[in-house]
Amino acid sequence: MSRVKRVRKYLVPIFLIVILAISALAFDVFYINHDQAQSKPMPYVGVAFGGNTTQEAKLLIDKISGYTNLFILDSGRNPISRNQSSVEEICSYAVSKGLSVIVNLGIDDVLETNEKTWFWDQSLNSTKQRWTDMWGNKFLGVYYNDEPAGIQLDGNWSKWYEHWAPLLSQMGTNTSTPYYVIVQDLQKIYSNMLNAMSNDTKPLDYDLEEKFFVDDVLKLDPGLRALNANGITAYTSDYSLYWFDYLGGYNTLFAELGSNNSVTEEIAQVKGAARLENKEWGTMITWKYNQAPYLDSGDQIYNQMLTSYEAGAKYITVFDYPYDQGNEYGTMTNDQFSAMQRFWNDVTQKKFTDLSSPEAVLVLPKNFGWGMRQPNDTIWGFWTSDYRTQQTATITSKLLVQYGARLDIVYDDAAYPVTKIGYKSIYYWNSTIS
Predict the structure, then answer these.
(1) I need a labelling partner for 103 at 20 to 30 A (CA). Which of 83, 185, 271, 388 fits?
(2) What integer pLDDT is reported at residue 13 of this predicted model?
(3) Are 46 and 135 contacting, i.e. CB atoms less than 8 angstroms apart?
C-alpha cells in the first residue's frame, strides 16, 4: 500500500521463500430487493494511521472521533509496532474516544534491517486476552502483512529465479527442511516457465501456481498461522485475487480503492469472494497518485465510500500515509476529513439504496489468477495473458456496465458452488452476452 512497498515489489518475492524459513524459528506458536432504499447496519468507518509517534496518533484520533468508529494502527514498519507500551497507549486512547481498534503487529523484516518489526514472540493468546480485558469488544483483530496477492502478481519472478535458482537447487535437496515442498513447487513452476519460453506454450491449468500461493506462501506464513491458531481475526488489504487471500487464511480483506483500478470491479471481486467463502470485507481508500497530494479529492473519496456502503461493505477506511509532508495529520487534509464527516452524517441520517443482495455473478475459470487490471495483466505473476484473458475482460466490462456494484466476481470451485447463493443471474467467463 505504501510508496516504499510499491517501489520494492520487484524485490519482495525473495521474502516468499527465504523469510518464511527464517521467521519460522520465531513462532511455535441481510437480503432485500436492491431497488428498495433502506437503513442498514452502520459499518466500521475509520482511518488507517501511517504516522510515526503516539502524539501524531492521538492528534488524528481527536480529529476524527466525532465521525468515525474505527482506528487502525497501521504502522507495521516503524518503531510503534515494536513498542508494546506505545501500541497500548494509542489504542487505549482511541477506545476512550469510542473507537474500535485494529492493530498492525508489524512483520519479520530481518532480511532488510536484521531486526524484527514483529515483536510479539510472546504468546498471542495471552496478548489477545490482555487486549480483550483492556478494550473489550472494541479490539477487533490484527492487521497482518500487506498486499500478499499484489506482491505475487507484481513481483519480478524471472529476475528472482535468475538470482535464487542456485539456492533453490541447494534447498531442494534437503528433505528435512519444513519448506522443502515450497522449494519443489517453485522449481516446478520455474521449469514450466523455461519450457514455455522455448516451446511457446502455456499451462493447461494454474493449479500448481494456486497451490504455491495459497498453501505455501499464505498457509505456511508463521504469523498468519499464529493468528489463526489463536482465534485472532486477521485483516489485510489487497488489490486483486481476494478469493485466494481468503483461502490462505485471512478473515477480512480491504479492497484498495483510489488508483486507476475500477472501483466497482474491485468491490465485485472482494464481495463475491467474501459471500461464497463466508468471510467479511471492506474497502481501503488509498493513493490516487504516487506523489503529493497522494489521495483523491474529497468528493471522489465520498463517492467511493458511498459506493462501498451501498454494496454492503462492513469496513470503510482511508489510508493516511505518509507523514512527511509537513501536515500534522499526515496525507489527509480538511478536504478528505470533510468528506468523511459528510459521509458519516449522511449514512446515519438518510436512507440509501441497498445493492448488497446477490443479484448477478461472473464465474471465472478455476485458479485463474489473472490480475484483471488490464487485458495484458499477468497470471499469478509468472505468466503473460492467455487465450482466456481477452474474453474474460470483455464480459467483465459488459457486466460491470450492466450491474455495477450488484455484480459479484468469483471462481469456479467445487467447494464453493455459486448455486448455494440465490443469484438471479449466473454468467461464466465464456458466456456470450450482447
Answers:
(1) 271
(2) 47
(3) no
